[in-house]
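User: Can you predict the 3D structure for this chain?
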Amino acid sequence: MSFYDEHPKFYISTDCIIFGYFDNKLHVLLHPRDMNPGQGEPSLMGGFVDDDESVDNAAKRVVTQLTGLEDFYIEQVGAFGNVDRDPGERVVSVCYYVLIKAHNYSEELRREYNAEWVEIDKVPTLYGDHNTMLERAHKILREKLAWTPVAFHLIAEKFTLTQLQTLYETIYGEILDKRNFRKKLTESNHIVNTGEIDRTTSKRGAYLFSFDFDGYKKDGIFKL
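Assistant: Here is the predicted structure, written as C-alpha coordinates:
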Protein backbone atom coordinates (compact mmCIF):
# COMPACT_ATOMS: atom_id res chain seq x y z
CA MET A 1 0.00 0.00 0.00
CA SER A 2 1.37 3.40 -0.98
CA PHE A 3 1.22 6.57 1.08
CA TYR A 4 -1.59 7.91 -1.14
CA ASP A 5 -3.73 4.79 -0.64
CA GLU A 6 -3.93 5.52 3.08
CA HIS A 7 -5.88 8.74 2.52
CA PRO A 8 -9.42 9.44 1.29
CA LYS A 9 -9.99 10.68 -2.24
CA PHE A 10 -12.30 13.59 -3.08
CA TYR A 11 -13.91 15.01 -6.18
CA ILE A 12 -12.57 18.39 -7.32
CA SER A 13 -14.88 20.79 -9.14
CA THR A 14 -14.85 24.38 -10.28
CA ASP A 15 -17.68 26.87 -9.87
CA CYS A 16 -17.56 30.00 -12.03
CA ILE A 17 -19.31 33.23 -11.11
CA ILE A 18 -19.74 34.91 -14.49
CA PHE A 19 -20.43 38.63 -14.17
CA GLY A 20 -21.78 40.79 -16.99
CA TYR A 21 -22.77 44.45 -17.07
CA PHE A 22 -25.61 45.89 -19.14
CA ASP A 23 -28.63 48.17 -18.73
CA ASN A 24 -26.64 49.91 -15.97
CA LYS A 25 -26.87 46.78 -13.82
CA LEU A 26 -24.36 44.15 -12.72
CA HIS A 27 -25.65 40.68 -13.58
CA VAL A 28 -24.56 37.13 -12.81
CA LEU A 29 -25.14 34.16 -15.10
CA LEU A 30 -27.19 31.34 -13.56
CA HIS A 31 -28.75 28.15 -14.83
CA PRO A 32 -30.87 25.30 -13.44
CA ARG A 33 -28.70 22.55 -11.96
CA ASP A 34 -28.82 19.62 -14.36
CA MET A 35 -28.18 16.74 -11.96
CA ASN A 36 -29.21 15.41 -8.59
CA PRO A 37 -29.00 16.28 -5.81
CA GLY A 38 -30.61 19.66 -6.38
CA GLN A 39 -31.64 19.13 -9.99
CA GLY A 40 -33.51 22.20 -11.29
CA GLU A 41 -32.34 24.53 -8.51
CA PRO A 42 -30.73 27.82 -9.64
CA SER A 43 -26.98 27.35 -9.69
CA LEU A 44 -23.66 28.84 -10.69
CA MET A 45 -21.89 27.51 -13.78
CA GLY A 46 -19.36 24.79 -13.06
CA GLY A 47 -17.97 21.34 -13.71
CA PHE A 48 -15.54 18.70 -12.51
CA VAL A 49 -11.79 18.85 -13.10
CA ASP A 50 -10.57 16.27 -15.62
CA ASP A 51 -7.58 14.02 -14.92
CA ASP A 52 -5.42 15.72 -17.54
CA GLU A 53 -6.00 19.40 -16.68
CA SER A 54 -5.15 21.89 -13.98
CA VAL A 55 -7.88 23.47 -11.87
CA ASP A 56 -7.31 26.83 -13.59
CA ASN A 57 -7.62 25.26 -17.02
CA ALA A 58 -10.77 23.43 -15.96
CA ALA A 59 -12.39 26.73 -14.97
CA LYS A 60 -11.38 28.35 -18.27
CA ARG A 61 -12.74 25.36 -20.18
CA VAL A 62 -16.07 25.63 -18.40
CA VAL A 63 -16.38 29.34 -19.17
CA THR A 64 -15.49 28.91 -22.84
CA GLN A 65 -17.83 25.96 -23.20
CA LEU A 66 -20.74 27.85 -21.66
CA THR A 67 -20.20 31.27 -23.24
CA GLY A 68 -18.26 30.67 -26.45
CA LEU A 69 -15.70 33.25 -25.29
CA GLU A 70 -11.95 32.75 -24.98
CA ASP A 71 -11.00 36.30 -23.99
CA PHE A 72 -12.19 37.09 -20.47
CA TYR A 73 -10.89 38.05 -17.04
CA ILE A 74 -10.80 35.22 -14.51
CA GLU A 75 -9.54 35.14 -10.95
CA GLN A 76 -9.73 32.57 -8.18
CA VAL A 77 -12.03 33.38 -5.26
CA GLY A 78 -11.05 30.49 -3.03
CA ALA A 79 -11.69 26.85 -2.17
CA PHE A 80 -14.92 25.66 -0.57
CA GLY A 81 -14.66 22.31 1.17
CA ASN A 82 -17.13 21.95 4.01
CA VAL A 83 -17.75 18.26 4.63
CA ASP A 84 -21.49 18.51 4.01
CA ARG A 85 -21.45 21.08 1.19
CA ASP A 86 -22.58 18.51 -1.40
CA PRO A 87 -25.00 15.81 -0.21
CA GLY A 88 -24.12 13.62 -3.19
CA GLU A 89 -20.39 13.09 -2.62
CA ARG A 90 -17.45 14.73 -0.87
CA VAL A 91 -16.65 17.52 -3.33
CA VAL A 92 -14.14 20.33 -2.89
CA SER A 93 -14.90 23.24 -5.20
CA VAL A 94 -12.43 25.88 -6.33
CA CYS A 95 -14.43 29.00 -7.13
CA TYR A 96 -13.57 31.67 -9.71
CA TYR A 97 -15.16 34.93 -10.72
CA VAL A 98 -15.19 35.84 -14.39
CA LEU A 99 -15.77 39.20 -16.08
CA ILE A 100 -17.09 39.20 -19.63
CA LYS A 101 -18.41 41.79 -22.03
CA ALA A 102 -22.02 40.67 -22.05
CA HIS A 103 -22.70 41.84 -25.61
CA ASN A 104 -20.15 39.28 -26.87
CA TYR A 105 -21.87 36.38 -25.13
CA SER A 106 -23.43 33.80 -27.45
CA GLU A 107 -27.21 34.00 -27.24
CA GLU A 108 -27.39 30.58 -28.85
CA LEU A 109 -25.30 29.07 -26.04
CA ARG A 110 -27.37 30.88 -23.43
CA ARG A 111 -30.48 29.15 -24.74
CA GLU A 112 -28.70 25.81 -25.12
CA TYR A 113 -27.70 25.77 -21.45
CA ASN A 114 -30.95 27.38 -20.30
CA ALA A 115 -28.87 30.13 -18.69
CA GLU A 116 -30.24 33.42 -17.45
CA TRP A 117 -28.74 36.78 -16.54
CA VAL A 118 -29.93 37.83 -13.08
CA GLU A 119 -29.33 41.23 -11.49
CA ILE A 120 -26.91 40.93 -8.60
CA ASP A 121 -29.43 42.26 -6.08
CA LYS A 122 -32.17 39.90 -7.29
CA VAL A 123 -30.30 36.60 -7.03
CA PRO A 124 -32.51 33.90 -5.49
CA THR A 125 -31.44 31.19 -3.08
CA LEU A 126 -28.93 29.10 -4.99
CA TYR A 127 -27.92 25.47 -4.71
CA GLY A 128 -25.67 24.56 -1.79
CA ASP A 129 -23.09 27.18 -0.84
CA HIS A 130 -23.28 29.09 -4.13
CA ASN A 131 -24.73 32.22 -2.49
CA THR A 132 -21.71 32.31 -0.17
CA MET A 133 -19.41 32.01 -3.18
CA LEU A 134 -21.21 34.84 -4.93
CA GLU A 135 -21.08 37.13 -1.90
CA ARG A 136 -17.33 36.58 -1.53
CA ALA A 137 -16.69 37.20 -5.23
CA HIS A 138 -18.77 40.38 -5.21
CA LYS A 139 -16.80 41.64 -2.21
CA ILE A 140 -13.48 40.94 -3.94
CA LEU A 141 -14.66 42.73 -7.09
CA ARG A 142 -15.62 45.83 -5.09
CA GLU A 143 -12.28 45.87 -3.29
CA LYS A 144 -10.26 45.60 -6.52
CA LEU A 145 -12.03 48.44 -8.34
CA ALA A 146 -9.88 51.15 -6.78
CA TRP A 147 -6.45 49.70 -7.56
CA THR A 148 -6.85 47.41 -10.57
CA PRO A 149 -8.55 47.98 -13.94
CA VAL A 150 -11.03 45.10 -13.55
CA ALA A 151 -13.98 47.37 -14.44
CA PHE A 152 -12.73 47.71 -18.02
CA HIS A 153 -13.31 44.00 -18.61
CA LEU A 154 -17.04 44.62 -18.14
CA ILE A 155 -17.61 47.77 -20.16
CA ALA A 156 -17.42 48.25 -23.94
CA GLU A 157 -13.98 48.96 -25.43
CA LYS A 158 -15.02 52.61 -25.93
CA PHE A 159 -16.99 54.41 -23.26
CA THR A 160 -17.90 57.86 -21.99
CA LEU A 161 -16.79 58.99 -18.56
CA THR A 162 -20.42 59.06 -17.47
CA GLN A 163 -20.85 55.44 -18.52
CA LEU A 164 -17.71 54.47 -16.64
CA GLN A 165 -18.83 56.29 -13.49
CA THR A 166 -22.21 54.58 -13.65
CA LEU A 167 -20.47 51.21 -13.80
CA TYR A 168 -18.39 52.02 -10.72
CA GLU A 169 -21.44 53.29 -8.86
CA THR A 170 -23.37 50.15 -9.77
CA ILE A 171 -20.70 47.82 -8.39
CA TYR A 172 -20.01 49.94 -5.30
CA GLY A 173 -23.72 50.46 -4.67
CA GLU A 174 -23.27 54.16 -3.97
CA ILE A 175 -23.16 57.51 -5.77
CA LEU A 176 -19.68 58.93 -6.44
CA ASP A 177 -18.74 62.60 -6.62
CA LYS A 178 -18.52 63.40 -10.33
CA ARG A 179 -15.77 66.02 -10.07
CA ASN A 180 -13.56 63.89 -7.85
CA PHE A 181 -14.10 60.79 -10.00
CA ARG A 182 -13.10 62.57 -13.20
CA LYS A 183 -10.11 64.23 -11.54
CA LYS A 184 -8.75 60.83 -10.59
CA LEU A 185 -9.36 59.56 -14.11
CA THR A 186 -7.41 62.39 -15.72
CA GLU A 187 -4.49 61.65 -13.39
CA SER A 188 -4.29 58.14 -14.84
CA ASN A 189 -2.24 57.95 -18.05
CA HIS A 190 -4.05 54.78 -19.03
CA ILE A 191 -7.40 56.46 -19.76
CA VAL A 192 -7.14 57.52 -23.41
CA ASN A 193 -9.41 59.98 -25.22
CA THR A 194 -10.15 58.41 -28.61
CA GLY A 195 -11.28 61.73 -30.11
CA GLU A 196 -14.57 60.11 -31.10
CA ILE A 197 -17.89 61.45 -29.84
CA ASP A 198 -20.90 59.49 -28.66
CA ARG A 199 -24.13 61.27 -29.56
CA THR A 200 -26.57 58.55 -28.51
CA THR A 201 -27.59 60.35 -25.32
CA SER A 202 -27.50 64.00 -26.42
CA LYS A 203 -27.00 66.19 -29.49
CA ARG A 204 -23.83 67.66 -28.07
CA GLY A 205 -22.48 64.23 -27.27
CA ALA A 206 -19.57 63.16 -25.11
CA TYR A 207 -16.05 62.02 -25.86
CA LEU A 208 -15.37 58.32 -26.00
CA PHE A 209 -12.41 56.94 -24.04
CA SER A 210 -10.59 53.62 -23.94
CA PHE A 211 -8.26 51.92 -21.48
CA ASP A 212 -4.62 51.39 -22.43
CA PHE A 213 -4.06 47.81 -21.26
CA ASP A 214 -0.61 47.68 -22.87
CA GLY A 215 0.51 50.68 -20.86
CA TYR A 216 -0.90 49.18 -17.70
CA LYS A 217 0.92 45.89 -18.31
CA LYS A 218 4.22 47.77 -18.57
CA ASP A 219 4.03 49.71 -15.30
CA GLY A 220 1.29 47.88 -13.42
CA ILE A 221 0.01 51.14 -11.93
CA PHE A 222 -3.67 51.95 -11.60
CA LYS A 223 -5.40 53.87 -8.85
CA LEU A 224 -8.84 55.42 -8.78
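The radius of gyration is 20 Å. The longest helix spans residues 130-144.
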